[in-house]
Specification:
The protein has ten helices and eight strands. By secondary structure, the chain is α/β, with parallel strands linked by helices. It has one domain: 3-Layer(aba) Sandwich (Rossmann fold). An eight-stranded mixed sheet has the order 1-2-4-3-5-6-7-8, sandwiched between helices.
Length: 309
């Protein structure tokens, strides 16, 4: 049975809140990565977004509580999204190992020897591998709606139709894009969060205005890794890397997630040293949204506990 962490509290928060925000370009070879740090003091928290998603999806309601708790919070655009370098994946394919290198380059750009990792979906999976590959760079790991890398839980969810609809190609008509994004997010939203279509349209317009790469290669890189073993060497290597994680790990998952099955969180607990899980009732594949503050409270408590070790 999975160990379950308690619900978060506000006890770990401080009253200090420095709103200083600075942007910086990180470089991984020829790839330039847009990065931003909020806050000036305390240990660093690196936010790692999901496939094809931009840094601005880590919204103020998620970022600011972490800064109030006394942390420097870094968010960034992966290659192929937002304001970072876009490429032609077919002409110059890259691998999950390259994406992990992007995250390490972000730490280096801010002169951060280490950080607490918080990753959503793909970002959580890559966070597991980063922690296994780069001992000492990760202080703790929080995996949100993320697959257990190298695990035995099936990749496809119990409702593959929903998954396939979620992975459908973007429409070519610019006028249809906004509605497509709104409906994609409605598809994976859990019942515990009200889905306000007007709010979602405003949110999506911000994403599209900032930069929407229809040819983002993230999913292709992950698919190639799964099919061939790729640069990481296959499932056994991923499993071995995760087994080498020696930092406190928290897997948070919605019990209505139709994209990455909740069983992934339980497998993380069973197969990763010092891991625990929280299942959130009524939440879907949308844990980068935190309207109640519950998720950031869990992260703050988890980070505080890791720093006491």
């Amino acid at each position: 049975m999975a160990k379950s962490a308690g619900r978060g509290t506000l006890a770990a928060m401080t009253t200090t809140f420095d709103t200083t925000t600075t942007t910086r370009v990180a470089r991984n070879g020829e790839v330039e990565l847009w990065t931003e740090m909020q806050g000036t003091d305390g240990s660093a928290v690196l936010l790692m977004m999901g496939s094809g998603s931009q840094a601005i999806q880590w919204e103020p309601a998620f970022v600011e509580p972490l800064v109030r708790a006394g942390h420097r919070v870094v968010r960034f655009d992966w290659r192929d999204v937002g304001l970072s370098t876009w490429g032609d994946f077919r002409a110059r394919p890259y691998t999950p190992l390259d994406l992990i290198g992007d995250a390490v380059a972000v730490l280096d750009a801010w002169d951060l020897p280490s950080a607490h990792l918080v990753g959503f979906s793909m970002g959580g999976g890559l966070g597991q591998l980063l922690a296994g590959l780069y001992a000492g760079r990760a202080l703790s790991l929080t995996s949100l709606s993320a697959p257990c890398m190298g695990g035995d839980v099936p990749a496809l969810p119990e409702d593959p139709e929903t998954f396939l609809r979620f992975c459908s190609r973007q429409p070519t008509d610019e006028h249809e894009l906004e509605t497509w994004f709104v409906e994609q997010n409605r598809l994976v939203a859990g019942s515990a969060v009200d889905f306000d279509e007007d709010d979602w349209r405003t949110r999506v317009r911000g994403w599209l205005a900032r930069g929407n790469n229809r040819r983002c290669g993230h999913m292709a890189a992950l698919r190639r890794q799964a099919e061939t073993g790729g640069a990481l060497g296959g499932t056994d290597v991923c499993r071995a890397l995760r087994a080498h994680i020696r930092i406190p790990t928290l897997a948070i998952h919605g019990d209505e997630d139709l994209i990455v099955m909740p069983a992934h969180a339980d497998e993380m607990v069973a197969t990763t040293p010092d891991a625990r899980a929280v299942h959130l009732p009524g939440r879907g594949h949308d844990l980068w949204l935190d309207p109640t503050g519950e998720i950031t409270c869990l992260i703050i408590d988890h980070v505080a506990a890791a720093e006491r070790v």
